[in-house]
User: What shape does this take?
Amino acid sequence: MSNSREEDFTEIRNAHELIKRLHHSCPGLLHSVIPQLEEELRVDEVTLRVLATQVLGEMFADKGGGDLIKKYPATWNLWIQRKNDRSAAVRLKFVEAARSLLISLFEQREVVEGKPISYLPWCTLTYVSAESLRAKLLDPDEKVRAAVCKIYGQIDYETALHHVSGDQLRAVSERVADKKVRSKAQPFR
Assistant: This one.
């Protein structure tokens, strides 16, 4: 990958898109592919880590994502660690993927609400997603902080009312003091 050109990444992007489609249609076919995606989260090449973070996040947020998390807990844990990646681009992709995960968890409440995951007995998926986003409100990169604020700005009222804690909303509101985030926000209409 260190000698790769942009054309090579185009092929890799196409392969990742096919992996997402396969997961959506027939997740059982991907037993040998998920460990490869996990390895891509570890490589030095930022573009590849960005792609793997995005694809895995979308797969975890898909309708079969809960089963994927249960089958591949090491991959899930490594994906969650991307919130602290050294590259702001990877952290930004993590936040964007966490948005999809958070929204899908709200829609699939009966699957995850109140049911601890066996390898994460101290929390639920919703807690992990929300706490990961909360941590990114203090990210050193302004684009990551702005992306988290944008996520909470896009959540509908009912979802926020029933599934977002008051502490989380207060943490988001504290970002109003962040001039760079505020200047990127769109005005309310």
Notes: The chain has one domain: 6-184.
